[in-house]
Write a structure and sequence with these properties.
The protein is mostly helical. It has two domains: 62 residues, no CATH class; 266 residues, no CATH class. Helices cover 61% and strands 4% of the residues. The longest helix is centred in the C-terminal third of the chain and has 32 residues. The C terminus is likely disordered.
Length: 339
């Protein structure tokens, strides 16, 4: 068998229907697929010549009502990447959180496999990210309660990642992409590319911003720090823009647009999924994205309470420091008040 798609496991609604079509009309094509017995097609021999005739046979023997049902699901799934961009966590917010909690940020990236299309100047405006009221959990008054809150966050995000992983497996085994029937990893690549692009975007942010803590703490201990809401214990330092920063930010912005296009054509091209099953798939993706956004919002609010100020680098042409002071005051005026 040349693909993850086994043509025995189907999404619930059309399972018996497609099993019947396979048995009654496409037995020969299925046997060639199972035994990897490739026959010549269009002058070539390969995996596509094994699976494409089978997929074509199933589609040709599908009645128009079922075809329309699958087409409606394709429209819904094709819109899903754009919907996730609106409902999920903003990539810049996740990147900013990665300065404090990189492991949690990685899990959040897996929970929402889309990348926000950001402008270059967004990386140099931390006051926009930090604007807003700090978030405090009323019942998290001691380390035990804070530990419980932290464990709940990681359990929720772990469940979201597991949900995405199960969806990837289902879409790879129970469906196939019409324009790449011989390649079962298109959905997997969509998710992996999202994580890679978010990691590069986080690197771009680190080229522009760093956090200075009042107390130096190893990164792993900081990841699980229960005192993340210590007031004004952290300072945001804005670095000078560099050629590397501009190159990476342009790359991420361009790649994010292409990733959105890729996700759209991949999910819209999925076959053998009914409208009801497509809606369930979309809601499961959406649930993980909303959970990631909720955790990001909470963590960002906690981070706001720990930021005590913003420093800008000395700008070229300013020798007396007065220009730096004016810029720092301008940015500090935009910072949230922790009182």
């Amino acid at each position: 068998m040349s693909s993850l798609t086994d043509f025995q496991s189907w999404f619930g609604d059309f399972g018996p229907y497609y099993a019947g079509v396979l048995q009654m009309s496409c037995g020969d094509e299925y046997q060639r697929y199972v035994t990897d017995n490739a026959t010549s097609c269009d002058g070539g021999v390969g995996k596509e010549c094994i699976i494409t005739p089978l997929v074509s046979c199933i589609l040709q023997n599908t009645d128009p009502v079922a075809t329309a049902n699958v087409a409606a699901a394709s429209v819904l799934l094709g819109l899903l990447p754009t919907i996730l961009l609106q409902a999920g966590a903003n990539t810049m917010h996740v990147n900013f959180l990665s300065l404090k909690r990189p492991i949690l940020s990685l899990l959040l990236s897996l929970s929402c496999p889309v990348v926000s299309i950001l402008k270059t100047q967004a990386y140099g405006e931390p006051e926009v990210i930090l604007r807003g009221a700090p978030v405090h959990v009323p019942w998290a008054r001691n380390d035990t309660e804070r530990l419980l809150a932290l464990c709940c966050q990681y359990l929720i995000v772990a469940g979201s990642v597991a949900n995405i992983g199960h969806l990837i497996w289902q879409l790879s085994v129970m469906s196939t992409v019409g324009w790449a029937t011989h390649f079962p990893y298109t959905v997997t690549i969509w998710v992996v590319l999202a994580v890679v692009l978010q990691a590069i975007s986080a690197l771009c942010l680190r080229l522009r911003i760093r956090l200075e803590d009042a107390v130096t703490t190893p990164w792993l201990r900081r990841e699980f720090d229960l005192g993340c809401e210590r007031t004004e214990s952290t300072r945001v330092v804005l670095k000078q823009e560099s050629t590397l920063f501009f190159a990476v930010s342009w790359l991420v912005s361009t790649a994010a647009t292409m990733h959105l296009m890729y996700g759209t054509v991949v999910l819209a091209g999925l076959l053998f999924i009914s409208t009801r099953n497509g809606l369930i798939i979309a809601l499961r993706f959406l649930a993980s994205a909303v959970a990631a956004k909720a955790i990001t919002t909470y963590e960002l609010g906690s981070l706001r309470s720990s930021v005590g100020g913003l420093s800008l680098p000395e700008l070229s042409g300013a020798h007396d420091g007065s220009r730096l002071v004016r810029h720092e005051k301008k940015y500090m005026d935009k910072m949230p008040s922790n009182t």
